[in-house]
Write a structure and sequence with these properties.
The protein has 289 residues and is an alpha/beta fold. It folds into 2 domains: 67 residues, no CATH class; 210 residues, Alpha/Beta hydrolase fold, catalytic domain (Rossmann fold, 3-Layer(aba) Sandwich), CATH 3.40.50.1820. It is 40% helix and 16% strand. It is built from 10 helices and 8 strands. β7, α8 and β8 form a beta-alpha-beta unit. α1 crosses α6. The longest helix is centred in the first third of the chain and has 32 residues.
Amino acid sequence: MNTNSLFFKIGWRVVFYPALVYVTLSLVFFWLYAHPKRYTGSFVPADFNFKPEAVTLTTADGIKLDAWFIPNRNSKKAVIVCHGYPMDKSDVLGLTSFMARGFNLLYFDFRATGRSGGFFSTGGARETRDIDAAVKFLEEKGFKNGVGAYGFSMGAAAVLLSQNPAIKARVLDAPYADLGGELDYIFKPFGLWRKPLLGLMRLWSRLFMGVNINSVNPALSAAALKTPILLVHGDADTQVPLENSLRIKAAAPGAELWVIKGAGHGENWYQAGNRYETRITDFFRKNLK
């Protein structure tokens, strides 16, 4: 074997095998994010003395969503409550149970989470169809004058991405401004390697789900909305930094932005307490007819 042939055989192995490992690693990361382990929390409506109606919602693409409808006979207003990734509806039940004093509430598990059907979680892109199914259910219940929507984290992003005209007011707790940017932030520890890793993950997203990650942009969607928006964000949030709500506010100047000092991700209610409950309740009362 001549020297050139030996160098070639060694060289292509030095390039090919690490590249194969890297491609495989990107596929593993994509799979873990897009098909998360199912989480079902321990909280149920009975823990808060609620008597819900067990509901199954059906999306336009045929996915069955597990839901709770919590009625309030003294109110003609309804709010859809959307949880974060990769949790389920029980995860936000404690944070939002106060709204049951003034509104009818609809909780549901997004696709591929909790007890709902579906295989892929899409970071908000397809979850708008889940919100549409929730809106349809409430309209069939008689809420014809529009509904409100509350979302936390990914749920907040999905609420912003939804252009459903029946949603008349939106409260967003710790939304991200764009999915590509959020993934870039999450993978910062990979340094220079994160760009090609994310590029491959975008490829897998297109191939397996038909979703362009770069087009999942709640800030851009917010700019097109004409209905009231309330952004709530903690300045100590290290999972979805405050910069995200600042970008959304810049895109939609008419939105209200409430920054809660010292609050991390999922801590706004704990930090603000009664102020959180009062401000959100007042916002929906004002903006829902």
